[in-house]
Design a protein that fits this description.
The chain has about 190 residues and is an alpha/beta fold. It is built from nine helices and five strands, in the order βαβαααβαβαααβα. It starts with a strand and ends with a helix. The structure holds BIS(adenosine)-5'-tetraphosphate.
């Protein structure tokens, strides 16, 4: 099993790179950001609760995303067509990382490695503002980006330490063309399984 966490600040390119990795390694894919946006579009109770927080650049409650991920892991257990799971945007807090370890342990599995995209803040802001011109994401504006980056530094960055302590953390330079960055990711992932 190849279970990978793709990690980095908002706009680092996690979603972009995930598409290539899922195909190359035949992985199931869970993006908690996409899952929350689907709930928001469907205007479910969960989606409305999430929207109020996401529009403010805040993280949603841990249990909300843990439940979403749990359902994907259960569904994955019965599928023989994939060779692991790629987690995008999860875990975003140390509590979520601990919950993920427990959920995988129940299925006799574990995280193989966390791959982190290193991108300077100036570039992150530029990328998100470019995306804002074409996306209808309510959190892609200058004021909210600053809040998202603060949430990242406060609550999400410590998750890297959690995987460093387990010897599973790998970082790649997230600047360059999409293909150059994929090549860097592939070379570190090939070494972690
Ligand atoms: P996400 O959907 O995960 O949003 P993100 O961090 O902004 O996206 P990502 O890093 O994937 O960037 P992308 O590839 O699109 O989360 C949204 C919100 O949901 C969070 O703020 C939070 O509120 C909530 N949430 C989600 N998960 C949660 C959790 N586990 N716990 C609590 N709350 C949670 O790339 C960005 C842009 O850069 C794109 O436009 C792309 O085209 C461009 N780009 C990519 N690679 C590039 C390159 N190499 N060069 C130039 N541009 C590039």
């Amino acid at each position: 099993m190849l279970n990978i966490v793709i990690f980095g600040p908002p706009g680092a390119g996690k979603g972009t790179q995930s598409q290539l990795l899922v195909e190359k390694y035949k992985l199931a894919y869970i993006s908690t950001g996409d899952a929350l946006r689907a709930e928001m579009a469907a205007k479910t109770a969960l989606g409305l609760e999430a929207k109020a927080l996401i529009d403010q650049g805040q993280l949603v409650p841990d249990q909300m995303v843990i439940d979403i991920v749990q359902n994907v892991i259960i569904a994955r257990q019965s599928s023989k067509e994939v060779e692991g799971i790629l987690f995008d945007g999860f875990p975003r807090t140390v509590l979520q990382a601990q919950a993920l370890d427990r959920m995988l342990e129940h299925t006799g599995s574990a995280i193989s490695c966390m791959v982190s995209l290193d991108v300077p803040e100036k570039e992150l802001i530029e990328r998100i503002l470019i995306r804002a011109k074409t996306s209808d994401r309510s959190d892609d504006n200058e004021e909210t980006i600053t809040k998202r980056l603060n949430e990242y530094l406060l609550k999400t960055k410590p998750v890297a330490e959690y995987y460093i302590a387990q010897g599973k953390f790998r970082e790649v330079n997230g600047l360059g063309s999409i293909e150059e960055i994929s090549d860097r990711l592939i070379s570190v992932i090939d070494e972690c399984h």
